[in-house]
Amino acid sequence: MGAPEVEATLLESKQLADDLGVEATPTYVIGEAVVPNTRGIVDDLKGRVAALRKCGKAMC
Questions:
Q1: What is the pLDDT of residues 8-59, one digit of tens each?
Q2: Residue 52, number of CB atoms within 10 A of its CB
Q3: Distance between CA atoms of residues 52 and 48, nearest Å
Q4: Domain residue spans of the chain
Q5: pTM across the whole model
Q6: Is the preceding peptide bond at 26 cis, omega within 30 degrees of 0?
Q7: How far is 11 from 18, CA to CA, in rounded Å?
């Protein structure tokens, strides 16, 4: 892969993705919610961001 630092960073990122349940890209994290890419992603993201601003969570 390359330098040990690069390999360590990639492994750390992979572990974080596994911990969050990320299975595809792009995947968005809004507050504590993990939102995978879907057809209605833009509207979904707008709603979750608005909720995060309103109540501090991705879904009020």
A1: 999 999 999 999 888 888 888 888 888 887 777 888 888 989 999 999 988 8
A2: 17
A3: 6
A4: 24-60
A5: 0.54
A6: yes
A7: 10
